Automatic annotation (TrEMBL):
<dbReference type="InterPro" id="IPR015422">
    <property type="entry name" value="PyrdxlP-dep_Trfase_small"/>
</dbReference>
<comment type="similarity">
    <text>Belongs to the class-III pyridoxal-phosphate-dependent aminotransferase family.</text>
</comment>
<dbReference type="GO" id="GO:0030170">
    <property type="term" value="F:pyridoxal phosphate binding"/>
</dbReference>
<dbReference type="InterPro" id="IPR005814">
    <property type="entry name" value="Aminotrans_3"/>
</dbReference>
<dbReference type="InterPro" id="IPR015424">
    <property type="entry name" value="PyrdxlP-dep_Trfase"/>
</dbReference>
<keyword id="KW-0032">Aminotransferase</keyword>
<dbReference type="InterPro" id="IPR015421">
    <property type="entry name" value="PyrdxlP-dep_Trfase_major"/>
</dbReference>
<keyword id="KW-0663">Pyridoxal phosphate</keyword>
<keyword id="KW-0808">Transferase</keyword>
<dbReference type="Pfam" id="PF00202">
    <property type="entry name" value="Aminotran_3"/>
</dbReference>
<protein>
    <submittedName>
        <fullName>Aminotransferase class III-fold pyridoxal phosphate-dependent enzyme</fullName>
    </submittedName>
</protein>
<dbReference type="GO" id="GO:0008483">
    <property type="term" value="F:transaminase activity"/>
</dbReference>
Length: 344
């Protein structure tokens, strides 16, 4: 109860909450709510998005329609009267931490409502960036909000929050209600951990994370430049992503074109420095990080770039004239042939 009250107090658009065991389960519940509310069964998602591992919300499923992120015209064309809901993220998370273009998500929300569909905002990652979620900063009013990760304080949890009328579709007293049961939904341990975490994640903590992420992004960019390597660091609050390119990516397609073996080499080089980031270049900062921790991370990136440059520079491409890497071919298996000892 305490965690639900904290969420409804923090997020203006969340009137009621239903707990699940993961973000994936939350997305599935939102999909079922949208289908019940609209009588439709298709959903629109964005290329490069991630709303869990359920097939019903993944590209390639017959009920899933896909549009490129930051392309409102494409969304307009895809928004048929078969769409029950649009699932969107405040920034394209797993697709490369691509910020939304100004006005894009507000346009998506307006198109969804104009076509009789729900607008579902996935704040599983982004709640950490503002007390009221990214929707507060972007001026969005989603019908449903997906939550997870941070609201469990490290334990398994998920939640759907939103308008009272929509969430009451699952209430026991509602005729022909949408059943939603689960032994561990809203597990006391996860709820207690989440409540403590949210209590500590106040505006001051979020501001400190933001400043640390800004500093780290600048340091990574500077270190790469000194090694003669083209790097762009995209950022959404305290979530960052490193890209081997000299042009800021604006879509998942652009990220795929720049996703080269250098990312794998960077991941390995950082591991050898005692720093873990995701193989795709994603970085998440924590409130537990101290100044000396971030200094070690900055040093690790500097050494990693130096070592990658040292073993990778080819004749005719001296440091400072690094060639933009060729894109990987998605259908092929690409292996990094660099010996771990060269990166250590």
């Amino acid at each position: 109860m305490r965690l639900a009250e904290m969420l409804t107090n923090r997020i203006d658009t969340v009137e009621l909450v239903r707990f699940t065991n993961s973000g994936t389960e939350a997305a599935l519940l939102a999909e079922r709510l949208a289908a019940r509310a609209t009588g439709r069964h298709k959903v629109l998602v964005f290329d490069g998005s991630y709303h869990g591992s359920a097939p019903e919300l993944m590209q390639g499923h017959p009920q899933v329609v896909t549009a490129p992120y930051n392309d409102l015209d494409a969304v307009d064309r895809a928004m048929t009267n078969e769409i029950a809901a649009v699932f969107a993220e405040p920034f394209l998370g797993a697709g490369g931490v691509i910020p939304s273009a100004p006005g894009f998500l507000r346009g998506v929300q307006d198109l969804a409502h104009a076509r009789g569909a729900l607008f579902v905002l996935d704040e599983v990652q982004s709640l950490r960036n503002d007390v009221g979620g990214e929707q507060a900063k972007l001026g969005l009013t989603p019908d449903l909000t997906l939550l997870g990760k941070i609201i469990g304080g490290g334990l398994p949890i998920g939640a759907v929050g939103g308008e009272r009328d929509l969430l009451l579709l699952t209430a026991p007293g509602t005729p022909d209600r949408l059943a939603h049961s689960g032994t561990f939904n809203g597990h006391p341990a996860a709820a207690a951990a989440g409540a403590i975490t949210l209590a500590h994640l106040n505006a001051g903590a979020i501001d400190r994370l933001e400043r640390a992420a800004t500093t780290l992004a600048a340091s990574i960019t500077s270190s790469a430049a000194q090694a003669g390597m083209p790097i762009v660091v995209t950022r959404a609050g305290s979530i960052l992503n490193v890209h081997f390119t000299d042009t800021p990516p604006t879509s998942a397609a652009h990220v795929r074109e720049t996703n080269t073996d250098l990312l794998s080499a960077l991941h390995l080089a950082l591991l050898n420095q005692g720093v873990y980031t995701t193989p795709r270049g994603l970085i998440n900062l924590s409130t537990a990080f101290r100044a000396e921790d971030l200094a070690k991370v900055e040093e690790a990136y500097a050494k990693a770039f130096e070592r990658i440059a040292r073993i990778s520079v080819k004749p005719g491409h001296p440091s400072g004239q690094w060639p933009v890497p060729a894109p990987r071919v998605a259908a092929e298996r690409v292996s990094v042939t660099t010996d771990v000892r060269d990166l250590g």
